């Protein structure tokens, strides 16, 4: 059920995007213990003039490989989030060659009544999930 929105600079191949998304999903499954088929991902590619991502004064180097990951999810523990951050940076560097300095992440937390997966029903509230 976590929804991952990915913003990145245009120019990656379909194969590179597939590898990025597969890696992100594997980390999501590991960190949040969600089912493997619980996969919702949206990618938006931007021309460099349409996305400006700096470093909040932390002197973090950014390159054209920069990836912004936004996760919309039910509440998660601090430990789960910290594991997600750490493992995502590790795996994107290892599997996709994206340096940890080029990975920015944030969470948007929703409650159970904020989700409908179809049929006009809130499946968490109706206990279908």
Question: How do the helices and strands line up, and which of them pair or pack?
Answer:
Blueprint: E1 3-9, H1 14-32, E2 40-46, E3 67-73, H2 78-96, E4 103-109
Parallel strand pairs: 1-2, 3-4
Antiparallel strand pairs: 1-3
Helix pairs in contact: 1-2
**First-to-last CA distance:** 10 Å
What is the global morphology? globular
Q: H/E order of the elements?
A: EHEEHE
Q: In terms of per-residue confidence, which ranges show pLDDT below 50 for 5 or more consecutive residues? A: none
Percent range for β-strand residues: 15-25%
The total of helices stands at 2
User: Percent range for helical residues?
Assistant: 25-40%
Record the strand order, biggest sheet. 2-1-3-4
Helix/strand/pairing category: alpha/beta
Radius of gyration equals: 16 Å
What's the total number of strands? 4
Round the mean pLDDT to the nearest integer and report it. Answer: 96
User: What profile does the largest beta sheet have?
Assistant: 4 strands, mixed
Summarize it.
The chain has 129 residues and is of the alpha/beta class. Helix content is 29%, strand content 22%. It has a 4-stranded mixed β-sheet with strand order 2-1-3-4, with helices on one face.
Describe it for me?
- The protein is α/β, with parallel strands linked by helices.
- It contains two helices and four strands; from the N terminus they run βαββαβ.
- A four-stranded mixed β-sheet has the order 2-1-3-4, with helices on one face.
- α1 links the parallel β1 and β2 (40-46).
- α1 packs antiparallel against α2.
